[in-house]
Amino acid sequence: MKHIITMTGPSLAGKTQLCKALQEHGFHLIKSFTTRPIRKGEIQGTDYDFFSVEEFNSLRHHNQIIQETFYNQNYYGVSEKELQKNDSKPYLWIIAPQSIEQVEAYCAKKSYHLTKIFITNSEDVIFKRLLERFQQDSTGKIETYVNRLKAIVSDDRQWTQDAFNGKITYDIIIKRFEEDNKIAVRDAIINNNFNLIINDLHIHQIKNKIR
Questions:
Q1: Is 0.85 surpassed by the pTM of this model?
Q2: CA distance between the termini of the chain
Q3: Mean pLDDT across the stretch 123-130?
Q4: For residue 34, pLDDT beyond 90
Q5: Lowest CB count within 10 Å: 11, 57, 144, 160, which one?
Q6: Mean pLDDT, the chain, integer
Q7: Domain ranges for the chain
């Protein structure tokens, strides 16, 4: 039976880095598509499938999209083919909170195990990462980063509030993910053992074994 682990949280909280760390141990990342422009260092077909709005609308018209969301003026989603691969390892799925109900319904329909993780960081850390990203992006437009900042202080802040007040229920909430606890968090998820980093994690409940 397939086991899907969703990763949700603010932009630059560390979702992608945590997924990469887990991929090194056999976890399979569900590749999303997006209509946003490709960023420096990203690779078409590796980080995302980068589609035009017209291509996205064609997929939707042919009922080939199982999850979609609209964030920061761009569409994100997953096509049916991504979950048709035969793989015994857990699947990692980066999603926005508004897509959780879609994923829950899909997993219930397919009888897949589902573990929902929310990952965040202090706003100081997130703002610093955004500034560093801007400084390293020689082709980035100021307007793009202004829009990302606006999303962080509005939508992303609300996501975190909803996670901690229980408006959206997650199985695991990771309150901090930085270089000094990266390995500990990764190993806790792999081994389903959170006692080692209890000060860094707030745990609502764990319904499924990771491996």
A1: no
A2: 12
A3: 85
A4: yes
A5: 57
A6: 82
A7: 3-202
